[in-house]
Amino acid sequence: MQPKLKSKVRCTDGEVGEVRRVIMDPLSHDISHIVVGGGPGDVPERQVPMGQVQAVTEDAVSLRLGMGEYATLPAFKRDEYVTTHEVEIAHLEERIHVTPGEVLVPFPELEKSVKRRTFFANFTHAIGFLIGFPLAFPVLRYLMKPMYSPFDNEWLKIGNSGKIKQDDVGVQFKYKRKIKEAYMPEQEIDKNVWVLKATPKVLEAIYQGKDMEFRDSFGKHIWTNKKDVPYIAFSGKCPHLGCGFKWRTHKTLGQVFLCPCHLSIYDAAGKVLDGPAPRPLDPLPIKVTATGDITIIDMEFKAGTKAQVRIV
Ligand code: FES
């Protein structure tokens, strides 16, 4: 039985409050902690790991702890979590049975800097407006010309295949890329891709019997990934909304790519197994030399669309 909201919470030597919230592990979809509050005195809400729960009945949760030990548990930090109203979790109600009320999941690492990013985005817009408004159209067009330049199809070296020890296992390669956006000075940004040495079964799932061609915005052929070359590189951005994803072990699905933002799950071939992602992971052009050096063309695609639309 899972703990219910408002159930009384008892230590071995007395009552300490009631269940105020539950926290879900975003990987296993199990309850990882209960948040207990409303006890005697002005005590903060505390976060109790499920390992300290001895028994759960219809209306009470018994802990293995005494009240002294309970008082040493960490206070609950609300701003480190988001509710399942704020993040979309597919089939939540089939996995967790706490009604009614709030289920929390840890705030995705990648989103922790959102306020800062929003500030810089707004700041850039304001500066852009102030600069752009008094200028005549030709000047503006001159300033924005780089936005209309063709995609950069340069090959970038990202590492060596010696880093990949096992077939069908995602390995992350990090690299830096120089970006020039509109009137902003050129900057170097951190990027990553996931590379797999794929078995024939996974290659077949990716290529479905056909080589994969890449073309530029004018339709000119750039490169062909051959269907029998075992190395495959996936863009490090989730096709749902562009978050970074990880290679993880899932309780029932085994090893998968998992995106923590809205819990999209992909298999080793990049196919969507669960979650809101509208399309599979995006393969990139890849070359591997005889000495194992891996180069890719760094491409980015529009997030949230079923069709793959290149934007960088
Ligand atoms: S960005 Fe939403 S699931 Fe990855």
UniProtKB/TrEMBL annotation:
Its cofactor is [2Fe-2S] cluster. The chain crosses the membrane at residues 119-140. Keywords: 2Fe-2S, Disulfide bond, Iron, Iron-sulfur, Membrane, Metal-binding, Transmembrane, Transmembrane helix. Residues 222-295 form the Rieske domain. Pfam families: Rieske (PF00355). This is Quinol-cytochrome c reductase, iron-sulfur subunit, modulated with PRC-barrel (Modular protein). It comes from Nitrospira defluvii. The lineage of its organism: Bacteria, Pseudomonadati, Nitrospirota, Nitrospiria, Nitrospirales.
